[in-house]
Amino acid sequence: MTVHTATCTAPVNIATLKYWGKRDKSLNLPTNSSISVTLSQDDLRTLTSAAASADFQEDQLWLNGALESLDSPRTKACLADLRALRAAVESADASLPKLSQYHLHIVSENNFPTAAGLASSAAGFAALVSAIASLYELPQDMSELSKIARKGSGSACRSLFGGFVAWEMGALEDGLDSKAVEVAPLAHWPTMKAAILVVSDDKKDTPSTTGMQSTVATSDLFQHRIHEVVPKRFEEMKKAIVNKDFETFGELTMKDSNSFHAVCLDSYPPIFYLNDTSKKIIKLVHKLNELEGHIIAAYTFDAGPNAVIYYDEANEAKVLGTLHKYFAQVQGWDKKDASALNGGVD
Ligand code: 2P0
User: What per-residue confidence (pLDDT) applies to 326?
Assistant: First the structure.
């Protein structure tokens, strides 16, 4: 039996300018552009192997050791796109094995516990698309492949790149211009660090897709966010990254996290992702920055209560020291759930 294989990894990315809202649900086309920092391969990542063989009887996916369904429209859309690109390669070179016609076996593992409460769909779809693209020896670049990962999960398109990444929303109805691009590689700003504070590992209240749909349909503030706030912030944040301007980057990151949670609260019925501990973290970071006289730490929160704190390596002792000191005093923040993962982004 001949089996063709390839293996790839894709790290988790954490948005600093949030994606929240779809203008097309099936294609995962967003209502605004977004920016993120991709963690390093050594931190939180998905490792995926893809195999194709004429002897396989069906497509199969094992996720963290368990057999999973490949029936979701999102996964099917990714596989169909990848097979179409491979078919084009095969039709240009008749000597190539017809991998596009073979079934696939896919094995995917996360190196972080599901209990960490961190979204894994971004790294998962990015690793899936990378592994199959590699197996198929596709000539497309990462931005092209990001359009396929986007169909799996919007934020997945950003995990195709390391470092600082922008997802350009695009304007076309077919989504051909809605893709990820590199703003700067990790090496551009190697002293940037991210600490992930696991506040709760409970399953999140409102799933992202449902939450976004509700916000788009019901929030008036959301219109202001996507038309007035984000377009300007998108340009300013890219500039701050290129200039390695932590103060501006940090301020924009915190403001955008707050803006995202504000439109969640403005949805009807309201969506709550932050809890009391999250709010204490926000206050603490502001207090720390105030005492320093300038911004040395910036928080951001996704669709859940866990915090990601960005800081420059030079301030590590100050930032982490403050967080540890404070949270040792918070009731309910015991050893079980106070696992602060210090994930450097270099
Ligand atoms: C982000 N989030 O930019 C934002 C910030 C959550 C808050 O992308 O429906 O899992 O698969 O496109 O990508 C989470 O949404 O949603 C997300 P789908 P996804 O990272």
Answer: 86
Q: Which residue out of 18, 23, 39, 208 has the highest number of ligand 1 atoms within 8 Å of its CB and is therefore the one to mutate?
A: 208
- Asked if 291 and 283 touch (Cβ cutoff 8 Å), the reply is no
**What does the block give as tokens for 299?**
């928080």
Query: In CATH, what number is assigned to the domain containing residue 134?
Result: 3.30.230.10
Strand 163-168 relative to strand 192-197, pairing: unpaired
Say how many domains are in the chain: 2
Spatial neighbors of 33 by CB under 8 A, at least 6 apart, are 17, 166, 167, 168, 169, 230, 231, 234
Residue 331 CA to ligand 1 center (angstroms) comes to: 31
At 228, list the tokens.
């007035």
Structure tokens at 332: 């309910």
Last-in-domain residue among 157, 185, 213: 185
Strand partners, 310: 194, 298
Evaluate if pTM is beyond 0.80. yes
Asked if 55 contacts 134 with a C-beta cutoff of 8 angstroms, the reply is no
Q: Which of 109, 110, 90 is nearest to 100 (CA)?
A: 90
Contact between residue 100 and residue 93 where contact means Cβ atoms under 8 Å apart: no
User: In this structure, what CATH number is given to the domain that contains residue 276?
Assistant: 3.30.70.890
pLDDT digits (tens, 9 = 90+) for 209-246: 999 999 999 999 999 999 999 999 999 999 999 999 99
> How far apart are the C-alpha atoms of 35 and 260, rounded to whole Å?
13
For residue 284, the enclosing domain spans 192-344
**Strand blocks (E) in 254-330:** 297-301, 307-312
Evaluate whether 117 touches 306 at the Cβ level (below 8 Å): yes
**ipTM for the predicted complex:** 0.98
Closest ligand 1 atom to residue 17 Cα is 3
Ligand 1 pocket list (CB less than 6 A):
15, 18-20, 28, 34, 119, 121, 153-155, 208-209, 302-303
Is residue 43 domain-shared with residue 96, that is, in the same domain?
Answer: yes
CA dihedral 157, 163, 169, 175 (to 10 degrees): -30
The residue among 185, 202, 234 that closes a domain is: 185
* Amino acid at position 342, single letter: N
